[in-house]
Design brief:
About 35% of the residues lie in helices and about 25% in strands. By secondary structure, the chain is α+β, with helices and mostly antiparallel strands. Among the domains are: about 1-35; about 95-180, Roll (SH3 type barrels). It has a four-stranded antiparallel beta sheet, with no helix packed on it. It has a three-stranded antiparallel beta sheet with strand order 1-2-3, with no helix packed on it. A hairpin with a 2-residue loop joins β1 (about 105-110) and β2. The N and C termini lie far apart (about 95 Å).
Length: about 180
């Protein structure tokens, strides 16, 4: 280090001290922006300022003071699950193909050859005979077991948190005594 570098080092140290302390610079900047209080002005101006600030806060809380422009991006304030549900399959078709698994009731199972046929009562109070592979609005039949009296559906799941895009739903036959005790 030479003696010519000392004045430069002093300036750097002075600047570093001013930046690290920050208070004198901030106070000077704030004082320059804030006009000094005028004793000639009435105290009502302060009340007007407070009222204006309160109105701005109320507008912000009610949603009038804030807008969001996604500019082609997905809106982060909208649910991802709702977007998937709305883009599902469109309007429901008529008949059993437009019914949800939860809307049909298993009434009986009959054997036809080696395959079983399940009899369902739909939400429209009509009866439907379905076999393995038949499609409902949110799933399809994967297994019909006459011995256990159960029908297994593979239901489509549109949950982004789910590992599998489906779940298995089992409907069982109920006896008259089971229905009475429920």
């Amino acid at each position: 280090m030479t003696r010519h570098d000392l004045p430069m080092l002093g300036r750097v140290m002075l600047l570093l001290t001013a930046v690290l302390s920050g208070a004198p610079i901030f106070a000077a900047a704030t004082a320059a922006q804030t006009p000094p209080a005028d004793p000639a002005k009435p105290a009502g101006d302060t009340a007007d300022t407070i009222n204006r600030i309160m109105q701005d806060n109320e507008a912000m809380l009610s949603g009038r003071g804030f807008t969001y422009d996604p500019a082609g991006r997905r809106d982060p304030f909208r649910s991802l699950v709702d977007a998937l549900n709305s883009a599902q399959k469109g309007p429901r078709p008529r008949g059993i193909a437009g019914m949800l698994i939860s809307e049909v009731d298993l009434v009986g199972i009959v054997q036809k050859g080696r395959a079983g046929i399940a009899f369902f009562n739909g939400s429209d109070n009509k009866g439907y005979f379905l076999k393995v592979g038949d499609q409902l609005y949110d799933g399809k039949i994967t297994r019909i077991d006459r011995k256990t009296g159960s029908v297994v559906f593979r239901q489509d799941v549109n949950d982004p948190r789910s590992i599998k895009p489906y779940r298995d739903v089992t409907k069982r036959l109920t006896t008259a005594t089971e229905e009475g005790s429920l």
